[in-house]
Amino acid sequence: xxxxxxxxxxxxxxxxxxxxxxxxxxxxxxxxxxxxxxxxxxxxxxxxxxxxxxxxxxxxxxxxxxxxxxxxxxxxxxxxxxxxxxxxxxxxxxxxxxxxxxxxxxxxxxxxxxxxxxxxxxxxxxxxxxxxxxxxxxxxxxxxxxxxxxxxxxxxxxxxxxxxxxxx
Length: 168
Known about the structure:
The chain is of the alpha+beta class. 40% of the residues lie in helices and 25% in strands. Strands 3-2-1-5 form a four-stranded antiparallel beta sheet, covered by helices on one side.
């Protein structure tokens, strides 16, 4: 079996056809204006549908975080009362957009620590109330505090007479 060797020679004509082929492939690989407009329209539609959901999720996360912070402040006041820190009872006072951890009597507190509610949230029920824990026992009168925003899903914080604090 004999192998023949062939020589290939490339003429400018071969390169010219190859260049045309590359140009044709490059043109075929692009997108038309209609295709781009359809994709942009779909992306805009998805964004429009998803934005309210994102805002709702963001509000629910903020509400859960602030609920946990309020429970933490209530437990701090309760623990300070149980150990009789500074020989006095401690509590939390609720305003429309904030709550205040205090020691002693709310009218003339020994100390205050103010916490702001953000994200458009406020106290919907319980504004102007104090939750004061008894010294040594940590008990209090039963209270219900509701926080949330207008038109949103509120969170209810329940404090029963024995001092148990829960989010409902």
